[in-house]
Amino acid sequence: MAKKYSVMGMTCGGCASAVTKAIMAAAPGTDVDVDLDAKLVSVEGLEDDATVQKAVEGAGFVYGGPG
Questions:
Q1: Domain of 25, in residue numbers
Q2: Cα four-point dihedral sign 40, 46, 51, 55
Q3: Predicted confidence band at 67 (pLDDT cuts at 50, 70, 90)?
Q4: Domain total in the chain
Q5: Contact 15, 57 (CB under 8 A)
Q6: In this structure, how many other beta carbons lie within 10 angstroms of the beta carbon of residue 60?
Q7: Which of 13, 34, 50, 56 could share a disulfide with 63, CB 3.0–4.6 Å?
Q8: Pick from 43, 42, 39: which is nearest to 9 by CA?
Q9: pTM of the complete model
Q10: Mean of pLDDT values over 28-44
């Protein structure tokens, strides 16, 4: 089951791509889907919130926690 996270600061497709790449690099094998309008990122195959937080913040965005 996918877990959703709030990510603030995403404004365009480039932002969504950067967040997706960062999460996939931190957790290979995950499936990442970004809802840009809702500012939510769904991650399938990972239960570790800290990994997502580090990836999101490392990509320059604000991690808003599970959403």
A1: 3-66
A2: negative
A3: confident
A4: 1
A5: no
A6: 11
A7: 56
A8: 39
A9: 0.94
A10: 96
pLDDT at 1: 84
Could you tell me the CA-to-CA distances from 25 to 8, 28, 37, 38, 54 in Å, in that order? 20, 6, 24, 23, 11
Torsion over CA of 23, 26, 31 and 36, rounded to 10 degrees?
A: 0
What is the DSSP annotation of 6-60? EEET--SHHHHHHHHHHHHHHSTT-EEEEETTTTEEEEES---HHHHHHHHHHTT
Longest dimension (CA), the chain: 26
**Residue 19: Cβ within 10 Å count:** 25
pLDDT for the residue 52: 97
Q: How far apart are CA 56 and CA 53, in angstroms?
A: 5
